[in-house]
Protein backbone atom coordinates (compact mmCIF):
# COMPACT_ATOMS: atom_id res chain seq x y z
CA UNK A 1 0.00 0.00 0.00
CA UNK A 2 2.86 2.37 0.87
CA UNK A 3 4.62 1.56 -2.40
CA UNK A 4 1.43 2.29 -4.36
CA UNK A 5 0.97 5.61 -2.56
CA UNK A 6 4.59 6.58 -3.20
CA UNK A 7 4.26 5.63 -6.88
CA UNK A 8 1.14 7.78 -7.25
CA UNK A 9 2.87 10.74 -5.58
CA UNK A 10 5.89 10.43 -7.89
CA UNK A 11 3.63 10.22 -10.96
CA UNK A 12 1.68 13.26 -9.78
CA UNK A 13 4.89 15.25 -9.40
CA UNK A 14 6.14 14.18 -12.83
CA UNK A 15 2.83 14.93 -14.58
CA UNK A 16 2.49 18.40 -13.02
CA UNK A 17 6.18 19.35 -13.23
CA UNK A 18 5.91 21.76 -16.21
CA UNK A 19 3.18 23.73 -14.44
CA UNK A 20 5.12 24.56 -11.29
CA UNK A 21 8.62 24.67 -12.83
CA UNK A 22 8.42 28.22 -14.12
CA UNK A 23 11.92 28.62 -15.57
CA UNK A 24 12.04 27.10 -19.07
CA UNK A 25 15.79 26.61 -18.80
CA UNK A 26 15.32 24.18 -15.93
CA UNK A 27 12.62 22.38 -17.90
CA UNK A 28 15.13 22.04 -20.75
CA UNK A 29 17.61 20.47 -18.31
CA UNK A 30 14.92 18.05 -17.11
CA UNK A 31 14.15 17.02 -20.71
CA UNK A 32 17.77 16.37 -21.70
CA UNK A 33 18.44 14.63 -18.38
CA UNK A 34 15.37 12.47 -18.96
CA UNK A 35 16.70 11.36 -22.34
CA UNK A 36 20.02 10.36 -20.80
CA UNK A 37 18.18 8.57 -18.01
CA UNK A 38 16.44 6.48 -20.69
CA UNK A 39 19.90 5.76 -22.11
CA UNK A 40 21.14 4.78 -18.63
CA UNK A 41 18.09 2.55 -18.05
CA UNK A 42 18.76 0.76 -21.34
CA UNK A 43 22.46 0.39 -20.48
CA UNK A 44 21.49 -1.04 -17.08
CA UNK A 45 19.60 -3.83 -18.81
CA UNK A 46 22.91 -5.01 -20.25
CA UNK A 47 25.37 -3.93 -17.54
CA UNK A 48 23.21 -4.44 -14.47
CA UNK A 49 21.37 -7.64 -15.39
CA UNK A 50 23.89 -9.51 -17.55
CA UNK A 51 27.14 -8.02 -16.23
CA UNK A 52 28.38 -6.95 -19.69
CA UNK A 53 30.01 -3.50 -19.78
CA UNK A 54 29.23 -1.65 -23.00
CA UNK A 55 31.46 1.42 -23.29
CA UNK A 56 30.13 2.26 -26.74
CA UNK A 57 26.48 2.61 -25.75
CA UNK A 58 26.32 6.21 -26.95
CA UNK A 59 26.77 4.87 -30.50
CA UNK A 60 23.19 3.55 -30.50
CA UNK A 61 21.91 6.87 -29.12
CA UNK A 62 23.75 8.70 -31.92
CA UNK A 63 22.59 6.25 -34.59
CA UNK A 64 19.01 6.82 -33.50
CA UNK A 65 19.51 10.58 -33.66
CA UNK A 66 21.02 10.52 -37.16
CA UNK A 67 18.55 7.99 -38.58
CA UNK A 68 15.57 9.97 -37.33
CA UNK A 69 17.01 13.30 -38.49
CA UNK A 70 17.89 11.99 -41.97
CA UNK A 71 14.48 10.36 -42.36
CA UNK A 72 12.77 13.64 -41.52
CA UNK A 73 15.05 15.84 -43.64
CA UNK A 74 15.54 13.52 -46.59
CA UNK A 75 18.88 13.16 -48.37
CA UNK A 76 20.57 12.53 -51.69
CA UNK A 77 23.81 10.60 -51.97
CA UNK A 78 25.82 8.94 -54.71
CA UNK A 79 24.97 5.28 -55.26
CA UNK A 80 27.70 2.94 -53.99
CA UNK A 81 27.69 1.17 -57.37
CA UNK A 82 27.29 2.92 -60.71
CA UNK A 83 26.84 6.61 -61.49
CA UNK A 84 23.34 7.10 -60.11
CA UNK A 85 22.14 8.71 -56.92
CA UNK A 86 19.97 7.56 -54.04
CA UNK A 87 17.24 10.02 -53.17
CA UNK A 88 15.15 9.77 -50.00
CA UNK A 89 12.30 12.22 -49.67
CA UNK A 90 11.53 13.81 -46.29
CA UNK A 91 9.17 11.73 -44.17
CA UNK A 92 7.33 12.19 -40.91
CA UNK A 93 9.34 12.42 -37.67
CA UNK A 94 7.27 9.55 -36.29
CA UNK A 95 8.52 7.28 -39.07
CA UNK A 96 12.03 8.49 -38.23
CA UNK A 97 11.45 7.51 -34.60
CA UNK A 98 10.33 4.00 -35.59
CA UNK A 99 13.24 3.51 -37.98
CA UNK A 100 15.70 4.87 -35.40
CA UNK A 101 14.50 2.35 -32.84
CA UNK A 102 14.63 -0.57 -35.29
CA UNK A 103 18.00 0.27 -36.87
CA UNK A 104 19.68 0.96 -33.51
CA UNK A 105 18.33 -2.37 -32.25
CA UNK A 106 19.64 -4.09 -35.40
CA UNK A 107 23.12 -2.68 -34.81
CA UNK A 108 22.91 -3.83 -31.20
CA UNK A 109 22.08 -7.33 -32.41
CA UNK A 110 24.98 -7.34 -34.89
CA UNK A 111 27.51 -6.12 -32.33
CA UNK A 112 26.24 -8.66 -29.81
CA UNK A 113 26.36 -11.46 -32.36
CA UNK A 114 29.93 -10.62 -33.28
CA UNK A 115 31.36 -9.99 -29.84
CA UNK A 116 29.49 -12.02 -27.21
CA UNK A 117 31.39 -15.13 -28.17
CA UNK A 118 34.54 -13.51 -26.78
CA UNK A 119 33.05 -11.30 -24.03
CA UNK A 120 35.00 -9.78 -21.15
CA UNK A 121 37.61 -7.20 -22.07
CA UNK A 122 37.23 -8.07 -25.75
CA UNK A 123 33.57 -7.07 -25.69
CA UNK A 124 34.49 -3.73 -24.09
CA UNK A 125 37.10 -3.11 -26.79
CA UNK A 126 34.63 -3.98 -29.57
CA UNK A 127 31.98 -1.61 -28.21
CA UNK A 128 34.44 1.28 -27.81
CA UNK A 129 35.73 0.69 -31.33
CA UNK A 130 32.20 0.59 -32.72
CA UNK A 131 31.35 3.93 -31.11
CA UNK A 132 34.50 5.50 -32.54
CA UNK A 133 33.77 4.10 -36.01
CA UNK A 134 30.25 5.56 -35.96
CA UNK A 135 31.68 8.93 -34.90
CA UNK A 136 34.22 8.88 -37.75
CA UNK A 137 31.54 7.89 -40.25
CA UNK A 138 29.32 10.77 -39.15
CA UNK A 139 32.30 13.13 -39.34
CA UNK A 140 33.60 12.09 -42.76
CA UNK A 141 30.53 11.04 -44.75
CA UNK A 142 29.80 14.67 -45.51
CA UNK A 143 27.36 13.99 -48.37
CA UNK A 144 25.04 12.21 -45.95
CA UNK A 145 25.63 13.74 -42.51
CA UNK A 146 27.08 17.18 -43.35
CA UNK A 147 30.06 16.16 -41.23
CA UNK A 148 31.21 18.84 -38.77
CA UNK A 149 28.71 21.31 -40.29
CA UNK A 150 25.94 19.28 -38.58
CA UNK A 151 22.42 18.41 -39.62
CA UNK A 152 20.28 21.40 -38.73
CA UNK A 153 16.67 22.51 -39.07
CA UNK A 154 15.53 19.05 -38.01
CA UNK A 155 11.73 19.21 -37.77
CA UNK A 156 10.19 18.74 -34.32
CA UNK A 157 8.22 15.64 -33.49
CA UNK A 158 4.70 15.82 -34.91
CA UNK A 159 1.38 14.12 -34.21
CA UNK A 160 -1.79 13.28 -36.12
CA UNK A 161 -4.39 11.93 -33.71
CA UNK A 162 -8.15 11.48 -33.81
CA UNK A 163 -10.03 14.31 -32.08
CA UNK A 164 -6.78 16.26 -31.65
CA UNK A 165 -5.88 16.81 -35.30
CA UNK A 166 -2.35 17.52 -36.49
CA UNK A 167 0.41 19.48 -34.85
CA UNK A 168 4.12 19.81 -34.14
CA UNK A 169 5.80 19.79 -30.74
CA UNK A 170 7.72 23.05 -30.79
CA UNK A 171 7.58 24.07 -27.13
CA UNK A 172 9.29 22.42 -24.18
CA UNK A 173 6.18 21.25 -22.32
CA UNK A 174 4.90 18.77 -24.95
CA UNK A 175 8.47 17.53 -25.48
CA UNK A 176 8.73 16.93 -21.75
CA UNK A 177 5.62 14.76 -21.80
CA UNK A 178 6.95 12.89 -24.84
CA UNK A 179 10.20 12.10 -23.02
CA UNK A 180 8.25 11.16 -19.88
CA UNK A 181 6.09 8.78 -21.92
CA UNK A 182 9.17 7.14 -23.46
CA UNK A 183 10.80 6.78 -20.03
CA UNK A 184 7.68 5.16 -18.55
CA UNK A 185 7.31 2.76 -21.49
CA UNK A 186 11.00 1.76 -21.29
CA UNK A 187 10.73 1.29 -17.52
CA UNK A 188 7.67 -0.96 -17.91
CA UNK A 189 9.38 -3.01 -20.64
CA UNK A 190 12.55 -3.44 -18.58
CA UNK A 191 10.52 -4.34 -15.48
CA UNK A 192 8.55 -6.96 -17.41
CA UNK A 193 11.75 -8.43 -18.84
CA UNK A 194 13.54 -8.53 -15.49
CA UNK A 195 10.62 -10.21 -13.74
CA UNK A 196 10.16 -12.78 -16.50
CA UNK A 197 11.95 -16.04 -17.22
CA UNK A 198 14.26 -14.14 -19.58
CA UNK A 199 15.26 -11.74 -16.82
CA UNK A 200 15.96 -14.57 -14.41
CA UNK A 201 18.14 -16.23 -17.04
CA UNK A 202 20.11 -12.99 -17.55
CA UNK A 203 20.65 -12.59 -13.80
CA UNK A 204 21.78 -16.22 -13.59
CA UNK A 205 24.38 -15.53 -16.30
CA UNK A 206 25.58 -12.49 -14.37
CA UNK A 207 25.91 -14.33 -11.07
CA UNK A 208 27.41 -17.62 -12.24
CA UNK A 209 27.73 -18.23 -15.95
CA UNK A 210 29.16 -21.79 -15.79
CA UNK A 211 26.33 -22.88 -13.49
CA UNK A 212 23.75 -21.17 -15.73
CA UNK A 213 25.15 -22.93 -18.80
CA UNK A 214 25.05 -26.27 -17.03
CA UNK A 215 21.39 -25.62 -16.28
CA UNK A 216 20.71 -25.29 -20.03
CA UNK A 217 20.63 -21.51 -20.41
CA UNK A 218 21.66 -20.36 -23.89
CA UNK A 219 24.23 -17.66 -23.10
CA UNK A 220 24.49 -16.00 -26.50
CA UNK A 221 20.74 -15.95 -27.03
CA UNK A 222 19.96 -14.06 -23.83
CA UNK A 223 22.92 -11.71 -24.13
CA UNK A 224 21.91 -10.86 -27.70
CA UNK A 225 18.37 -10.20 -26.56
CA UNK A 226 19.60 -7.81 -23.87
CA UNK A 227 21.97 -6.06 -26.29
CA UNK A 228 19.28 -5.64 -28.95
CA UNK A 229 16.64 -4.34 -26.55
CA UNK A 230 19.13 -2.02 -24.87
CA UNK A 231 20.30 -0.58 -28.19
CA UNK A 232 16.73 -0.08 -29.46
CA UNK A 233 15.79 1.94 -26.36
CA UNK A 234 18.93 4.07 -26.69
CA UNK A 235 18.07 4.67 -30.37
CA UNK A 236 14.55 5.78 -29.42
CA UNK A 237 16.00 8.26 -26.91
CA UNK A 238 18.43 9.52 -29.56
CA UNK A 239 15.55 10.08 -31.97
CA UNK A 240 13.66 12.28 -29.50
CA UNK A 241 16.90 14.11 -28.72
CA UNK A 242 17.40 14.98 -32.40
CA UNK A 243 13.86 16.30 -32.81
CA UNK A 244 14.04 18.27 -29.58
CA UNK A 245 17.50 19.85 -30.04
CA UNK A 246 16.92 20.11 -33.82
CA UNK A 247 20.63 19.99 -34.65
CA UNK A 248 22.94 16.96 -34.61
CA UNK A 249 26.69 16.77 -35.18
CA UNK A 250 29.36 14.08 -34.64
CA UNK A 251 29.86 15.25 -31.05
CA UNK A 252 26.76 13.25 -30.13
CA UNK A 253 29.06 10.18 -30.24
CA UNK A 254 31.57 11.55 -27.71
CA UNK A 255 32.84 8.99 -25.19
CA UNK A 256 32.00 11.27 -22.26
CA UNK A 257 28.28 10.63 -22.84
CA UNK A 258 28.75 6.88 -22.41
CA UNK A 259 30.76 7.58 -19.25
CA UNK A 260 27.89 9.74 -18.00
CA UNK A 261 25.42 6.89 -18.51
CA UNK A 262 27.75 4.43 -16.78
CA UNK A 263 28.08 6.83 -13.82
CA UNK A 264 24.29 7.07 -13.60
CA UNK A 265 23.97 3.29 -13.52
CA UNK A 266 26.84 2.56 -11.10
CA UNK A 267 26.10 5.29 -8.57
CA UNK A 268 22.34 4.73 -8.63
CA UNK A 269 22.71 0.97 -8.30
CA UNK A 270 23.26 -1.36 -11.21
CA UNK A 271 20.90 -4.29 -11.44
CA UNK A 272 18.05 -2.30 -9.86
CA UNK A 273 15.09 -0.83 -11.71
CA UNK A 274 15.14 2.55 -10.01
CA UNK A 275 18.94 2.89 -9.69
CA UNK A 276 19.67 4.52 -13.08
CA UNK A 277 16.81 6.95 -12.51
CA UNK A 278 18.14 8.08 -9.13
CA UNK A 279 21.71 8.26 -10.45
CA UNK A 280 20.49 10.14 -13.52
CA UNK A 281 18.60 12.70 -11.44
CA UNK A 282 21.60 13.32 -9.17
CA UNK A 283 24.26 13.59 -11.86
CA UNK A 284 21.95 15.30 -14.35
CA UNK A 285 20.69 17.99 -11.99
CA UNK A 286 23.82 18.39 -9.79
CA UNK A 287 25.87 20.32 -12.42
CA UNK A 288 22.97 22.72 -12.95
CA UNK A 289 22.67 23.44 -9.25
CA UNK A 290 26.43 23.98 -8.97
CA UNK A 291 26.40 26.56 -11.77
CA UNK A 292 24.49 28.92 -9.51
CA UNK A 293 27.17 28.92 -6.80
CA UNK A 294 30.50 27.89 -8.33
CA UNK A 295 32.71 28.31 -11.36
CA UNK A 296 33.35 25.58 -13.96
CA UNK A 297 36.50 24.25 -12.23
CA UNK A 298 34.79 23.92 -8.85
CA UNK A 299 31.75 22.32 -10.50
CA UNK A 300 33.83 19.48 -11.93
CA UNK A 301 35.70 19.01 -8.65
CA UNK A 302 32.46 18.72 -6.66
CA UNK A 303 31.00 16.44 -9.34
CA UNK A 304 34.02 14.14 -9.16
CA UNK A 305 34.21 14.17 -5.37
CA UNK A 306 30.50 13.30 -5.10
CA UNK A 307 30.96 10.37 -7.46
CA UNK A 308 34.04 9.09 -5.59
CA UNK A 309 32.31 9.37 -2.20
CA UNK A 310 29.28 7.44 -3.43
CA UNK A 311 31.46 4.68 -4.88
CA UNK A 312 33.59 4.51 -1.71
CA UNK A 313 30.84 4.51 0.90
CA UNK A 314 28.00 3.03 -1.16
CA UNK A 315 29.85 0.56 -3.42
CA UNK A 316 26.64 -1.14 -4.54
CA UNK A 317 24.95 2.16 -5.32
CA UNK A 318 22.46 4.47 -3.67
CA UNK A 319 19.32 2.38 -4.14
CA UNK A 320 20.72 -0.91 -2.72
CA UNK A 321 22.06 1.03 0.28
CA UNK A 322 18.64 2.58 0.91
CA UNK A 323 16.98 -0.83 0.54
CA UNK A 324 19.35 -2.37 3.09
CA UNK A 325 18.79 0.51 5.52
CA UNK A 326 15.02 0.21 5.14
CA UNK A 327 15.16 -3.56 5.65
CA UNK A 328 17.15 -3.15 8.87
CA UNK A 329 14.78 -0.44 10.07
CA UNK A 330 11.51 -2.21 9.35
CA UNK A 331 12.59 -5.84 9.27
CA UNK A 332 10.93 -6.28 5.84
CA UNK A 333 11.88 -5.95 2.19
CA UNK A 334 11.01 -2.73 0.34
TrEMBL record:
Q: Which InterPro entries match?
A: ABC_transp_permease, LivM-like
Q: Which UniProt keywords apply?
A: Cell membrane, Membrane, Transmembrane, Transmembrane helix
**Protein's membrane topology:** Multi-pass membrane protein
Q: Does the keyword Mitochondrion apply?
A: no
Its chief place of residence is membrane
Q: What sections of the protein cross the membrane?
A: 28-47, 59-82, 94-114, 176-194, 222-241, 247-266, 300-322
Question: Does the entry feature the keyword Transmembrane, yes or no?
Answer: yes
Q: What is this protein called?
A: Branched-chain amino acid ABC transporter permease
Amino acid sequence: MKKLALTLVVLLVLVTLPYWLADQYYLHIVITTGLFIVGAMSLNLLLGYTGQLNLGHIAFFGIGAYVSALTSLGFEIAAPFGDGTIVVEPSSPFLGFVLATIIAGLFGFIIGKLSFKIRGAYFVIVTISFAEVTRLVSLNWVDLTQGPLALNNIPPMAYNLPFLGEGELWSKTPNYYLVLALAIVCYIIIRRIVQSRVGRAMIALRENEPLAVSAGINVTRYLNFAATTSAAMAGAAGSLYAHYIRIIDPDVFLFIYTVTMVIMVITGGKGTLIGPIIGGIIFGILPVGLREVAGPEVQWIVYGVAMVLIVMFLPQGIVPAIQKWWTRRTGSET
